[in-house]
Design a protein that fits this description.
272 residues, alpha+beta, 25% strand
Length: 272
């Protein structure tokens, strides 16, 4: 399996909180998250957490000890939590956390796992691309933000309601009926979206962080079939370059999203 990778920090002067890496037959992509100014909770930071968790996942995958992806993720979350649980308040909702996307080609099958809002694109040999994501975080965010509809931004009322929305969103994290993300509790791994496809049915696989997926929405530079064509022509670095150009052209208006870390992995020549 041939894997090409690219990642780009969203803003200069800030660490890239994404992680991407590969070992023979497997790829891991993480999108780090945390609350700015939460250094008092964890002195290590989000980038440390994603790199530590991602490296641990790659180590487990390289050993290929027969465990399924959920078991591997649970072990990695527990091990990473143990590394800083004595020095950091890892149970606080604002402490470092990360989305997880893993794929593993093994015994004629492509197995995958998603936890929170990254994107997996399966390039089927005889059909269009299939896009798989974990929509629970997006649904929870939309529900929690509903009270803000129609409230003018920049007003005290908006700020007051937004505070309640943020608190409500945090309360849904790693809870039944809410959404799940890698943080301090290994049990979150059991809630991951998983699946398997025959490698014989696939010509390629793409993994995109939420920041990289913006090339489709909201910027609308291409659709998902176009993403695969762009990756085949220009690779992950070319896709991210197009995204950054769109962000620069959009300027800094009130409706423009702040550039996010963007990470892409593209897998071709899959084993049969």
């Amino acid at each position: 399996m041939y894997v090409s990778l690219a990642t780009s920090a969203g803003r200069a002067g800030r660490p890239n909180e994404d992680f991407v890496g590969a070992v023979p037959g497997a790829v891991v992509l993480l999108d780090g998250a945390g609350i700015p100014g939460a250094e008092s909770l964890c002195s290590h930071g989000v980038a440390w957490y994603t790199h530590r968790l991602g490296g641990t996942l790659l180590g487990h995958l390289s050993r290929d000890d027969g465990r399924d992806l959920r078991a591997i993720l649970a072990s990695a979350i527990g091990g990473t939590a143990a590394e800083h649980g004595d020095t950091c308040d890892i149970a606080d909702p604002s402490s470092p956390q990360a989305t997880v996307l893993m794929v593993r080609a093994r015994r004629g099958r492509l197995n995958y796992l998603l936890l929170a809002d990254s994107f997996l694109v399966l390039d089927h040999a005889h059909a269009g691309p299939q896009v798989i994501t974990d929509e629970r975080e997006v649904i929870a965010r939309r529900d929690c933000a509903a009270p803000l509809a129609g409230v003018p931004q920049g007003t005290p009322e908006y700020d007051r309601i937004r505070g309640f929305c943020v608190t409500a969103m945090r309360a849904r994290r790693n809870q039944p009926g809410g959404y799940w993300i890698a943080k301090d509790d290994p049990r979150a791994a059991q809630e991951a979206v998983t699946g398997s496809r025959s490698l014989a049915d696939l010509t390629g696989v793409a993994l995109l962080s939420n920041g990289a997926s913006r090339i489709v929405s909201p910027y609308g530079l291409t659709d998902w079939p176009g993403v695969l064509k762009l990756l085949a022509a220009d690779g992950p670095a070319g896709l991210i370059r197009r995204l950054r150009q769109a962000e620069a052209q959009a300027g800094g208006g009130p409706d423009v999203q702040v550039p996010d870390d963007a990470t892409v992995a593209h897998c071709m020549h899959l084993p049969r």
